[in-house]
Amino acid sequence: MVKIILLISFLIMFSFIFLKFYKYKKLLKKNKEIKFNKSNLYQWMNLTKKERFDLSKKESNSYLKKRKSLLDEIRKEYKSISKNDQKIL
Fold this sequence. Notes:
By secondary structure, the chain is mostly helical. It is built from three helices and no strands. The N and C termini lie far apart (92 Å).
């Protein structure tokens, strides 16, 4: 009976530790930030196909967010300018 309890507790502890390390390893891989350009071409090529795909997808999303925010700013400016023009007339 004591052996079974010890075995179960050992398995629970081992699984907990394993999951912690696995999660930590994933976080380390996710924090890899490489921008694609001429100077780091070799670093880019040393990545796996999936990592390159994920990084390019992140870059694409960040570019899209920047573009949207700039467009919003331009729209706001245009509205304010058009309102000012209407007040003058």
